[in-house]
Amino acid sequence: MPRHEVTLEYSFAIGKFEITVAEFGAFVDETGFQTGESALLNVPSRGPKKGNFLGATSARADEYLPGIFPGGKPGGPALVELAGFRTPGREVGRTHPATCISWKEAKAYFA
User: Fold this and answer.
1) Whole-structure pTM value
2) For residue 49, what pLDDT band results from cuts at 50, 70 and 90?
3) Mean pLDDT of 67-92
4) For the chain, how are helix, strand and coil distributed in percent, rounded to 5?
5) pLDDT per residue over 92-110, tens digit each?
6) Long-range contacts of 4-8 (CB under 8 A, 24+ apart)
7) What does R_g of the chain's alpha carbons equal in angstroms?
8) Cα 72 from chain centroid?
9) CA distance between the termini of the chain
10) Which letter does DSSP use for residue 97 in this model?
11) Interhelix angle 103-110/21-31, nearest 10 degrees
């Protein structure tokens, strides 16, 4: 699509930086918001991204046993473990971007 001007009929905000683990954690601790602490972790077993962590949250991740996600293909998304923003399946520090956050959790943070 060629470059063009767009007018939004509502207000919105956008940040220059990602929300960090510490920032999202402060929200959870201060509000008592219950996070799902379950995520479908995509850790490919082959190809150029073999072994690299790619997270995708799933509200139903805890319904499945570890292994290949139902309907998935070998090397595709696999439920490695139940994960959340503090334990996303890889080591993270307070200043790392928060991951494994569902749409519901993101909406609550920005409300």
Assistant:
1) 0.60
2) low
3) 63
4) 20, 15, 70
5) 899 999 988 877 888 899 8
6) none
7) 17
8) 19
9) 32
10) B
11) 80
